[in-house]
Structures are given as C-alpha cells and as structure tokens.
Amino acid sequence: MSVSPTRRRVAVVGTGAIAGGSHLPALRAHSDRVELVAAVDVDRDRLEAFRGLAGDRVPGYASLGAMLDAERPDLVLIGTPPALHRDQSVAALKAGAWVLCEKPQALSLAEHDEIAAAEDASGAYAAVVFQHRHGSGTAHARRLISGGELGAPLVAHCQTTWHRDAAYYAVPWRGKWATEGGGPTMGHGIHQYDLMLHLLGEWAEIRAMAARVVHDTESEDVSTALVRFTGGALATVVNSVLSPEEVSRIRIDCADATVELTHLYGHTNDSWTYTPAPHVPAARAAAWHTPAEDVPSSHTAQLGALLDAYDTGTRPPGSGRDARATLEFAAALYKAAFTGRPVHAGDIVPGDPFYASMHGEHPDWAPEERA
Predict the structure, then answer these.
(1) How far apart are the first and last CA of the chain?
(2) 133-300+325-356, which class in CATH?
(3) What confidence category does residue 370 fall into, taking pLDDT thresholds of 50, 70 and 90?
C-alpha cells in the first residue's frame, strides 16, 4: 500500500494493555499523519489479540530485530516491561527510527546515557511517555508560572497515592530492581514529579525516606522527599502504592495564587483550579481560568507533539536533558533515602553506585545475589 510522504511508518513493540488502551487510540487519532506498519511481541496470543484490535493486515513479529530489518519504521512505540527499554530503544535508534518509550525509559542514569549515545550516533531521538506534561491545562499552568503571572513559586506538594495489592506484585517482573528499576518512585509517582519539574524547573537538593511497609518486594512500596528548587521553592513529594483512596495531586502555592491539579490517571481543564491571594484584583484572577480549548493529557497529545518535532527535525519533548533530569531526580531520591544524606543536583556521576542502579548496591536494598 502506498504511503503519503507526510505519514510516518510506526511500529508497536509490546502489545499488552498499554498498547491497545493508549497507543492504538493515539495512532487512530493521528491517522492522517501515521500508519501502523508492524506489531512485535514474544507472546503470540497477545500479539494476535492486538492485531485483531488494530487490523489483521498489520504484520506481526516475534523479534524486534526482524521487524526493524523488514519494515524500517520511522517511529517505534515501546510498551514492554522496563528491563527491555534500554536495549530496544538503542536497537530502534541504530535502525534510524525515532522512539517513544513508556516510563521508565531506562533503569538507571547509566542506561539513559547509553540511549543518549545511540541518539548521537544515529541522529534519531528517543522520548519517554510523560503524557501529563501535555494537554491544554498543563500548557496554561506552565505559561502562567514561568511568566510570573502567579508570582514567585513558594511551596509545592506532589502526591501520587495509589493502591496496588499482592496480585499486582505477583507479575514476575514487578517489585524487582533488575526488571522494574524500583517501586512507586520509579513506576508510579514518576509521572507526577515529572510534571512538577516541568512546572517548577530545576531542583537543587533532595532529602528523602523510603520503606517496605506492606509488600514483600525488593524495592520500596512508599517514599517521601523534601525538595529545594533553584528558584527557592520548597516541595514535598509522596509516592505510595498503599493508599486505598487513590489520587494524583500537584499543588503549587505562589505569591499571588495557588494552582492545584487533582486527578488520577489523566487530567482535563476541569482538573485544575486557581485560587487568588486576597490582594489580587478579580480582573487579574479572571485571566487565570483554564482556556476554552480542552485538550486532555494523553498519549494522543504527546504523540502529536512528537510528530510535530519529527516534521521539523527537532528534538521532541520528553527526550534528552528533560528525560534525564526526571531520571536523575529519581536516582537522587533513592540515594538520599538509602544513605540518609542530602543529595544535590549533579552529584550522581559515573562511578557513583547510584549512577549504575537505583538501589546503589546499598546492603539493605540491593538484591541478595548482588549485595
């Protein structure tokens, strides 16, 4: 079938729930700009189920390498378990394809830097799915905060309090450093604190705690952190899978207003509220209301931004320094929690044990066979 030069040839790697529930709707929403040309999964039944959703004419492959050789896609969407992300991203980049990978993009800063080296060698880019950065509500809030419309940010709270039971951790790769990279700090709360960083900018210092309170896992099931930003704001961060009432929340108290986002797995304009300080005139506060256009945070919104970058040959959002900064935040949180000492931005460099792994070979946290 002939393909318009403006449509990008896309392959999906990993055909589980995230592929059918999020990536496939995003591809359909941008059907004028993309064509799904292949799907890859080692599980034949899962692959065939996805092909049934996507259309049986989409070729199926059991091997990423075979697919890359046969199809030469422009873009690869990766939705496999985290331990595979680094190698699959590097392979796609070496084949000349751009990458959009589910979080975490890598299990460590060392792995991320391998992906960055593959980017440099290929000229292609690898982005991580941070869909909460996208949508009209986020764009509006970031404009107001970065432009000083709400006054200087002073205090922030970032909360991911979710609930995961024993059945969730019965999946073999979950709860293990080598296959998931960490607990809720890496696998759940990363979306919210990535958005916090997107709104507030660079952080300077982290102090933290982590614990296994309920689940018998290698990694933590709860972590908390205190964060100082370079602009002077102080923040608290909570990442939990122990919370029966589930919520995702960011609150930023600025000098002239409080902005708050409350949702669970995705947000719309109605998820955001702005509360002016008593001294702020009503006419000024009226301009803070979310815009008329309501674009939800979603894979669809992020894919559109990535395609825009592809069309212009520029680095897509959620890649490069942006993606690394969020992963560095996770590594610093773990290091601060496990060592009991504050960690500053830039502290974790090659040679630091927390550069190579999120557990940092700490005797209380590293897997026994590696301790």
Answers:
(1) 54
(2) alpha beta
(3) very low
